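Sample intake — Nitrate reductase [NADH] 2-like
Collected from: Nicotiana tabacum
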Amino acid sequence: MDITGRQCGKPLIARLNAPEHNNTSNPTIFLDKYSSSDEDEDGYEDDDHQKNEYLQMIKNGNSELEPSVHDTRDEGTADNWVERNASLIRLTGKHPFNFEPPLNRLMHHGFITPVPLHYVRNHGPVPKGRWDNWAVEVTGLVKRPMKFTMDQLVNEFPSRALLVTLVCAGNRRKEQNMVKQTIGFNWGAAAVSTTVWRGLPLRALLKRCGIYSRRKGALNVCFEGADILAGGGGSKYGTSIKKEFAMDPSRDIIVAYRQNGEKLTPDHGFPVRMIIPGFIGGRMVKWLKRIVVTTQESESYYHYKDNRVLPSHVNADGT
Protein backbone atom coordinates (compact mmCIF):
# COMPACT_ATOMS: atom_id res chain seq x y z
CA MET A 1 0.00 0.00 0.00
CA ASP A 2 1.36 3.41 -0.92
CA ILE A 3 0.99 6.82 0.71
CA THR A 4 -2.34 7.57 -1.03
CA GLY A 5 -4.05 4.53 0.44
CA ARG A 6 -3.99 2.48 -2.73
CA GLN A 7 -3.40 -1.22 -3.13
CA CYS A 8 -1.85 -2.52 -6.37
CA GLY A 9 -2.52 0.81 -8.06
CA LYS A 10 -6.24 0.66 -7.26
CA PRO A 11 -7.88 3.29 -5.01
CA LEU A 12 -9.90 2.05 -2.08
CA ILE A 13 -13.37 3.33 -2.93
CA ALA A 14 -16.11 3.66 -0.35
CA ARG A 15 -19.64 4.94 -0.20
CA LEU A 16 -20.85 6.49 3.03
CA ASN A 17 -24.62 6.23 3.18
CA ALA A 18 -25.18 8.62 6.07
CA PRO A 19 -27.50 11.52 5.04
CA GLU A 20 -25.56 14.53 3.83
CA HIS A 21 -27.42 17.03 5.99
CA ASN A 22 -27.03 15.25 9.31
CA ASN A 23 -23.91 14.24 11.17
CA THR A 24 -23.80 10.69 12.52
CA SER A 25 -21.66 9.12 15.18
CA ASN A 26 -22.01 5.72 13.50
CA PRO A 27 -21.17 6.19 9.81
CA THR A 28 -21.84 3.27 7.48
CA ILE A 29 -19.24 2.56 4.83
CA PHE A 30 -19.96 0.59 1.68
CA LEU A 31 -16.87 -0.38 -0.31
CA ASP A 32 -18.85 -1.39 -3.37
CA LYS A 33 -18.75 -0.71 -7.07
CA TYR A 34 -18.59 2.98 -7.90
CA SER A 35 -21.19 3.71 -10.57
CA SER A 36 -19.83 5.18 -13.77
CA SER A 37 -21.41 8.25 -15.35
CA ASP A 38 -20.91 10.68 -18.20
CA GLU A 39 -18.83 12.84 -15.86
CA ASP A 40 -16.68 10.08 -14.37
CA GLU A 41 -16.30 6.93 -16.40
CA ASP A 42 -14.25 4.79 -14.07
CA GLY A 43 -15.59 1.93 -11.96
CA TYR A 44 -14.00 0.25 -8.96
CA GLU A 45 -15.04 -2.57 -6.70
CA ASP A 46 -14.02 -3.60 -3.20
CA ASP A 47 -15.05 -6.51 -1.02
CA ASP A 48 -17.19 -6.75 2.10
CA HIS A 49 -14.20 -7.71 4.23
CA GLN A 50 -12.58 -4.31 3.63
CA LYS A 51 -15.89 -2.54 4.23
CA ASN A 52 -16.36 -4.18 7.63
CA GLU A 53 -12.72 -3.76 8.59
CA TYR A 54 -12.68 0.01 7.98
CA LEU A 55 -16.06 0.51 9.63
CA GLN A 56 -14.87 -1.29 12.75
CA MET A 57 -11.65 0.75 12.83
CA ILE A 58 -13.62 4.01 12.77
CA LYS A 59 -16.09 2.86 15.42
CA ASN A 60 -13.33 1.60 17.71
CA GLY A 61 -11.34 4.80 17.34
CA ASN A 62 -14.32 7.04 18.08
CA SER A 63 -15.35 5.00 21.13
CA GLU A 64 -11.93 5.41 22.77
CA LEU A 65 -11.73 9.20 22.44
CA GLU A 66 -12.54 11.73 25.10
CA PRO A 67 -14.92 14.48 23.88
CA SER A 68 -13.46 17.52 22.15
CA VAL A 69 -13.85 20.69 24.21
CA HIS A 70 -13.39 24.45 24.09
CA ASP A 71 -9.76 24.51 25.18
CA THR A 72 -8.81 27.25 27.65
CA ARG A 73 -5.64 27.80 25.60
CA ASP A 74 -7.84 29.21 22.82
CA GLU A 75 -9.34 31.90 25.05
CA GLY A 76 -8.56 35.35 23.73
CA THR A 77 -7.96 34.06 20.18
CA ALA A 78 -10.17 34.04 17.10
CA ASP A 79 -10.50 30.26 17.48
CA ASN A 80 -12.18 30.33 20.90
CA TRP A 81 -15.33 28.79 19.36
CA VAL A 82 -13.61 25.68 17.94
CA GLU A 83 -13.78 22.43 19.93
CA ARG A 84 -10.53 20.41 20.04
CA ASN A 85 -9.05 17.33 21.66
CA ALA A 86 -7.14 18.33 24.79
CA SER A 87 -4.32 15.79 24.29
CA LEU A 88 -3.00 17.39 21.10
CA ILE A 89 0.56 18.71 21.09
CA ARG A 90 0.61 22.38 20.12
CA LEU A 91 3.64 23.41 18.10
CA THR A 92 3.25 27.18 17.62
CA GLY A 93 1.94 28.38 20.95
CA LYS A 94 -1.67 29.47 21.19
CA HIS A 95 -2.37 30.68 17.67
CA PRO A 96 -2.47 29.85 14.82
CA PHE A 97 -3.43 26.31 15.70
CA ASN A 98 -0.86 23.75 14.57
CA PHE A 99 -0.65 20.40 16.28
CA GLU A 100 0.13 16.75 16.03
CA PRO A 101 -1.20 13.96 18.24
CA PRO A 102 1.04 12.14 20.69
CA LEU A 103 2.85 9.56 18.58
CA ASN A 104 1.83 6.68 20.84
CA ARG A 105 -1.86 7.59 20.44
CA LEU A 106 -1.52 7.82 16.66
CA MET A 107 0.12 4.39 16.57
CA HIS A 108 -2.43 2.93 18.99
CA HIS A 109 -5.31 3.69 16.63
CA GLY A 110 -3.58 1.98 13.74
CA PHE A 111 -4.45 2.39 10.09
CA ILE A 112 -7.40 4.81 10.30
CA THR A 113 -6.90 7.96 12.38
CA PRO A 114 -9.86 9.29 14.41
CA VAL A 115 -10.71 12.79 13.13
CA PRO A 116 -10.05 14.53 16.51
CA LEU A 117 -6.46 13.18 16.41
CA HIS A 118 -5.77 14.07 12.76
CA TYR A 119 -2.88 16.56 12.62
CA VAL A 120 -3.76 20.18 11.80
CA ARG A 121 -1.81 22.88 9.97
CA ASN A 122 -3.51 26.28 10.11
CA HIS A 123 -1.96 29.54 8.94
CA GLY A 124 -4.46 31.77 10.73
CA PRO A 125 -7.94 31.84 12.30
CA VAL A 126 -10.46 29.19 11.32
CA PRO A 127 -13.19 30.75 9.11
CA LYS A 128 -16.73 30.47 10.43
CA GLY A 129 -18.65 28.76 7.63
CA ARG A 130 -22.27 27.69 7.29
CA TRP A 131 -23.43 24.86 5.05
CA ASP A 132 -26.55 26.68 3.86
CA ASN A 133 -24.86 29.86 2.62
CA TRP A 134 -21.49 28.54 1.41
CA ALA A 135 -20.70 28.59 -2.31
CA VAL A 136 -17.72 27.49 -4.38
CA GLU A 137 -17.00 29.57 -7.48
CA VAL A 138 -15.43 28.05 -10.60
CA THR A 139 -14.09 30.70 -12.94
CA GLY A 140 -11.19 31.67 -15.20
CA LEU A 141 -10.58 29.78 -18.45
CA VAL A 142 -13.90 27.96 -18.53
CA LYS A 143 -16.87 28.32 -20.89
CA ARG A 144 -19.45 28.53 -18.12
CA PRO A 145 -18.26 30.24 -14.91
CA MET A 146 -20.54 29.07 -12.11
CA LYS A 147 -21.11 29.10 -8.37
CA PHE A 148 -22.18 25.93 -6.58
CA THR A 149 -23.91 25.66 -3.22
CA MET A 150 -23.01 22.81 -0.89
CA ASP A 151 -26.29 21.04 -1.68
CA GLN A 152 -25.49 21.24 -5.39
CA LEU A 153 -22.01 19.81 -4.86
CA VAL A 154 -23.52 16.90 -2.93
CA ASN A 155 -26.62 16.20 -5.01
CA GLU A 156 -25.69 17.07 -8.61
CA PHE A 157 -22.43 15.16 -8.94
CA PRO A 158 -21.26 11.57 -8.48
CA SER A 159 -19.56 11.06 -5.13
CA ARG A 160 -16.73 8.80 -4.11
CA ALA A 161 -14.81 8.17 -0.94
CA LEU A 162 -11.10 7.50 -0.78
CA LEU A 163 -8.85 6.23 1.96
CA VAL A 164 -6.07 8.83 1.85
CA THR A 165 -2.99 9.48 3.95
CA LEU A 166 -2.17 13.16 4.45
CA VAL A 167 1.38 14.18 5.34
CA CYS A 168 2.61 17.64 6.25
CA ALA A 169 5.68 18.67 4.27
CA GLY A 170 7.31 19.53 7.60
CA ASN A 171 6.85 16.13 9.23
CA ARG A 172 9.90 15.34 11.44
CA ARG A 173 11.34 18.82 10.87
CA LYS A 174 12.43 18.86 14.51
CA GLU A 175 15.17 16.40 13.56
CA GLN A 176 16.11 18.51 10.55
CA ASN A 177 16.38 21.60 12.74
CA MET A 178 18.77 19.74 15.03
CA VAL A 179 21.18 19.49 12.08
CA LYS A 180 20.56 22.94 10.61
CA GLN A 181 17.91 25.44 11.70
CA THR A 182 15.21 26.12 9.12
CA ILE A 183 12.43 28.73 9.09
CA GLY A 184 9.90 26.00 9.87
CA PHE A 185 8.69 25.06 13.34
CA ASN A 186 9.45 21.77 15.06
CA TRP A 187 7.12 19.10 13.75
CA GLY A 188 7.65 15.70 15.33
CA ALA A 189 6.91 12.38 13.64
CA ALA A 190 3.10 12.45 13.94
CA ALA A 191 2.14 14.98 11.23
CA VAL A 192 0.69 12.12 9.21
CA SER A 193 -2.88 10.79 9.34
CA THR A 194 -5.12 8.45 7.34
CA THR A 195 -8.89 8.85 7.05
CA VAL A 196 -11.75 8.19 4.62
CA TRP A 197 -12.55 11.33 2.63
CA ARG A 198 -15.72 11.67 0.57
CA GLY A 199 -16.51 14.20 -2.14
CA LEU A 200 -17.05 14.78 -5.84
CA PRO A 201 -14.35 14.33 -8.49
CA LEU A 202 -12.68 17.64 -9.31
CA ARG A 203 -12.66 16.74 -13.00
CA ALA A 204 -16.45 16.35 -12.97
CA LEU A 205 -16.80 19.89 -11.61
CA LEU A 206 -14.41 21.32 -14.19
CA LYS A 207 -16.11 19.45 -17.03
CA ARG A 208 -19.49 20.82 -15.93
CA CYS A 209 -18.07 24.33 -16.30
CA GLY A 210 -16.49 23.59 -19.69
CA ILE A 211 -12.78 23.88 -18.93
CA TYR A 212 -10.83 25.14 -21.94
CA SER A 213 -8.04 23.25 -23.70
CA ARG A 214 -4.30 23.82 -23.41
CA ARG A 215 -4.37 25.61 -26.77
CA LYS A 216 -6.63 28.22 -25.19
CA GLY A 217 -4.25 28.69 -22.28
CA ALA A 218 -5.77 26.43 -19.63
CA LEU A 219 -2.60 25.09 -18.01
CA ASN A 220 -3.16 25.36 -14.25
CA VAL A 221 -5.99 25.00 -11.74
CA CYS A 222 -5.78 27.35 -8.74
CA PHE A 223 -7.54 26.86 -5.41
CA GLU A 224 -8.35 29.65 -2.95
CA GLY A 225 -9.61 29.33 0.62
CA ALA A 226 -11.72 31.65 2.73
CA ASP A 227 -9.03 32.36 5.32
CA ILE A 228 -7.55 35.89 5.20
CA LEU A 229 -4.02 35.71 6.55
CA ALA A 230 -1.82 38.48 7.90
CA GLY A 231 1.34 36.49 7.18
CA GLY A 232 0.77 36.64 3.44
CA GLY A 233 0.21 40.38 3.28
CA GLY A 234 -3.50 40.07 3.96
CA SER A 235 -4.04 37.58 1.14
CA LYS A 236 -6.07 34.39 1.23
CA TYR A 237 -4.45 30.99 1.28
CA GLY A 238 -4.04 29.72 -2.27
CA THR A 239 -2.10 27.24 -4.36
CA SER A 240 -2.38 25.41 -7.68
CA ILE A 241 -1.75 22.19 -9.58
CA LYS A 242 -1.26 21.45 -13.25
CA LYS A 243 -4.40 20.99 -15.35
CA GLU A 244 -3.16 17.55 -16.41
CA PHE A 245 -3.25 16.44 -12.78
CA ALA A 246 -6.67 17.98 -12.16
CA MET A 247 -8.25 16.21 -15.14
CA ASP A 248 -6.51 12.84 -14.73
CA PRO A 249 -9.06 10.29 -13.39
CA SER A 250 -6.26 8.10 -12.02
CA ARG A 251 -5.24 10.91 -9.62
CA ASP A 252 -8.52 10.58 -7.68
CA ILE A 253 -8.64 14.30 -6.81
CA ILE A 254 -11.85 15.20 -5.00
CA VAL A 255 -13.63 18.23 -3.60
CA ALA A 256 -14.31 16.74 -0.17
CA TYR A 257 -17.16 17.39 2.27
CA ARG A 258 -16.98 14.35 4.59
CA GLN A 259 -14.27 12.71 6.70
CA ASN A 260 -14.71 9.28 8.29
CA GLY A 261 -18.41 9.42 7.44
CA GLU A 262 -19.23 12.80 8.97
CA LYS A 263 -19.20 16.40 7.83
CA LEU A 264 -15.82 18.07 8.06
CA THR A 265 -14.85 19.69 11.35
CA PRO A 266 -13.79 23.38 11.39
CA ASP A 267 -10.07 22.61 11.68
CA HIS A 268 -10.24 20.29 8.68
CA GLY A 269 -11.99 22.67 6.30
CA PHE A 270 -15.73 22.72 6.99
CA PRO A 271 -17.73 22.75 4.85
CA VAL A 272 -15.53 21.81 1.86
CA ARG A 273 -11.86 21.35 0.97
CA MET A 274 -9.53 19.79 -1.59
CA ILE A 275 -8.09 16.28 -1.26
CA ILE A 276 -5.24 15.59 -3.70
CA PRO A 277 -3.74 12.13 -3.07
CA GLY A 278 0.03 11.99 -3.36
CA PHE A 279 0.58 15.74 -2.79
CA ILE A 280 1.70 17.48 0.39
CA GLY A 281 -1.00 18.74 2.71
CA GLY A 282 -0.18 22.33 1.73
CA ARG A 283 -1.80 21.78 -1.69
CA MET A 284 -5.10 20.61 -0.20
CA VAL A 285 -6.82 23.95 0.38
CA LYS A 286 -9.31 24.03 3.25
CA TRP A 287 -12.47 26.19 3.44
CA LEU A 288 -12.51 26.18 -0.38
CA LYS A 289 -14.15 29.25 -1.99
CA ARG A 290 -12.74 29.61 -5.51
CA ILE A 291 -11.35 27.39 -8.26
CA VAL A 292 -9.72 29.40 -11.04
CA VAL A 293 -8.40 27.90 -14.28
CA THR A 294 -5.39 29.94 -15.42
CA THR A 295 -2.36 29.94 -17.67
CA GLN A 296 0.11 30.71 -14.88
CA GLU A 297 0.59 28.98 -11.54
CA SER A 298 -1.01 30.48 -8.46
CA GLU A 299 0.53 33.82 -7.50
CA SER A 300 -0.38 33.34 -3.84
CA TYR A 301 2.33 34.07 -1.29
CA TYR A 302 1.62 30.65 0.18
CA HIS A 303 2.27 28.93 -3.14
CA TYR A 304 5.56 30.66 -3.92
CA LYS A 305 7.01 31.52 -0.51
CA ASP A 306 5.54 29.13 2.04
CA ASN A 307 6.14 25.38 2.32
CA ARG A 308 9.49 25.74 0.57
CA VAL A 309 12.05 24.76 3.18
CA LEU A 310 15.36 23.50 1.83
CA PRO A 311 16.93 20.29 3.16
CA SER A 312 19.68 20.86 5.70
CA HIS A 313 22.42 19.91 3.21
CA VAL A 314 21.28 22.44 0.55
CA ASN A 315 22.06 26.17 0.71
CA ALA A 316 19.80 28.91 -0.61
CA ASP A 317 22.07 29.40 -3.63
CA GLY A 318 21.60 25.74 -4.58
CA THR A 319 25.07 24.54 -3.62
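Post-analysis note: Residues 77-305 form a domain with the Sulfite Oxidase; Chain A, domain 2 fold (CATH 3.90.420.10).
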